Fold these 4 entries.
Entry 1:
Amino acid sequence: PVLDSEDAWVSVEGPVSIVELALEQKRIHYPLVEHQFVLCTILYAIMRFSLKSVKPLSLFDSKGKNAFFKDLTSIQLLPSGDMDQNVLSMRQQFLVKVVSAAVQALCSSQKAEDVSEEELFPFEKGKNWPTLAADLAQYLQISEDLVKRHHVCELYSYGMDHLGEE
């Protein structure tokens, strides 16, 4: 980009402006940032719902694992459309666990009258984990419908029929 500057600013001495420093930075590879975001979301879900026996890196193939340890400005080979069925199965099980844990947390927070879940996790106000799991399914090449159907089944099994109908 071309930066026009006034004549008064041309003769200014001192440190380099933050705009000039930002323009000198290398461009990041956005798909690699998205890949990192998926891992962060997975790790946060594991932590938030205390999911046991989930190995986050097992949800990625070898290309995906290698991409985590590269510079964000480098162009990496990311996982293609062809995925091992074992990895897809593990991803599907993970998303089902997240949805089940989210519905269980919702049910337990409605039953507990003394402390609400929003008080325990104030930074999550308005976060809809089943919707987030469905969005994550797109990145993980899992059917969104499968995640949504499981969400509805979980709502019905916990007696929240009014939410399941919606």
Note: The mean pLDDT is 84.
Entry 2:
Amino acid sequence: EVQQLNRQLEEKNGEIQQMINQPPYEKEREILRLQKSLAEREKAQATSEVLCRSLTDETHQLQRKLASTAEMCQHLAKCLEEKQKREKRNSDDQMPTERSNQLLDDETSLQALIVKLQDENRMLKQKVAHV
């Protein structure tokens, strides 16, 4: 093991000697290459940070929108329940067919709105999960 490490040390020393013995322009070229590589890595890292920040912002925005949509769904469901209770109480005043047609129309439109909001909610959850 010691011999192997000594050989590796000798190889590294040889590489260092080669670098030292290189003409100045070779050294400068190597320095320029390394600087260019460093600049490219820094640029890539900056780009990654910007993308990460952007995704984080989008995630927060989608989460807020999802919470808002869920709140709206709950509110609409509550409104639907209240409206159904009110209409049930008022059913004595209206004729049965008139009342059922109105209830059916109102319920259908509210149900359609709830389904639409649930779809939007599901889509936002998928987006948040993807992000």
Note: The CA atoms of residues 73 and 131 lie 23 Å apart.
Entry 3:
Amino acid sequence: MLDLSYSKTSPTFWDSSRSPFASMIGTNHVPTLSELNQLKDSLLLPENELHRVNFEIHRIRTFLDVLSQEKQQIERYIDAHKALMSPVRQLPSETLSEIFKWCLPFDPPYAVRNIYQAPLILTTICRSWRLTAINTPRLWNSLHVYLPPHLSRLTCSRRISGITTWLKRSGSLPLSLSFH
């Protein structure tokens, strides 16, 4: 424990108002040669103390960095193991598939090719969810298609390829399409 009583480690010890030069600090006084020598001598102890304090700060920061890294590693270990116990992992893929269907848009009733919306976002969570989503035809049998006239051939070709993949995932279900 740090002792902050009145000593050279005490903040009050380094109070400029207690300095032998307090009356000159903050003034336009020009020190004489004798005063300059006294000033240099009077700064030996505080400069040594500053060096000691800086060294201690560095030592403690280094120690704190090591502890912080250790803490992060322990937290990652705990989180990884808690994730294994997640109740959603216990759901059969059939149940998960039913839940995924409720993620589809209602109004308008057409899904869009947007990675931040269902069903595409469901394919980004984990491998199990990706497989379940891809193998749930009901997620893929509706689509809003937007093909603006200014698309390059390459972009248009990519969109058509994506739409084809989307519709293949619908299996033998009837399709609901919207075009713009």
Note: Residues 1-6 have pLDDT under 50 and may be disordered.
Entry 4:
Amino acid sequence: VFDDCAGNEGVEFEVSNPDFLIDDNLNLVARRDVIDSGDVMFVHGVNVHVDDMAQVTIMGAPSRSPQTLREILGLSDMMPYRSKRSLLVPPMFVPENQRAPFPRLIGKVISSDMKEDHIFRLTGRGADQDPKGVFSINRLTGEVAVSRALDREAIAYYHLQVSTTDLSGKLVEGPVDLDVSVIDQNDNRPVFKEPRYSGEVLEGSPT
């Protein structure tokens, strides 16, 4: 449940996973049956007083049937199947005009098949391409960080790639797309074109 604090009524929520939403009672609810665990999503809440982000992890997948259709039909050893991708890269969000200190953690990449001699690698615009060094990834933990304040009016969206390699640089997993969206802030001051404005209000006018 995402509960408004006093003075923060009317918060609008955006969920990064389209299979979930925040209902009128401020509950995070699923639009479909939840069959996967370990997926990470983000809930963005914003109004005139607040702009904040929550990270949500889906835990505890329901137990599966002891027999799949493939096993019932005796096809387990006859037909190859595609294994589930082990590199999980959730979309990430960064408010513009953040203040120091930097770097700031913005999310985490998860690999279910990570070995001790494997490392994470981040590439693309904002990493190893201009503007270089905006984003970095911890080679061992997969934590992604932003190194400086961003300007949405300059760049509103970053499209990067994450992969894992062994210590020699040989590709192990990926690359998988990592999308980073810059959240807009009301940082444009109002501009008055005239030096003076005049108006009239009738005496006794209702509130």
Note: The chain has one helix and 14 strands.
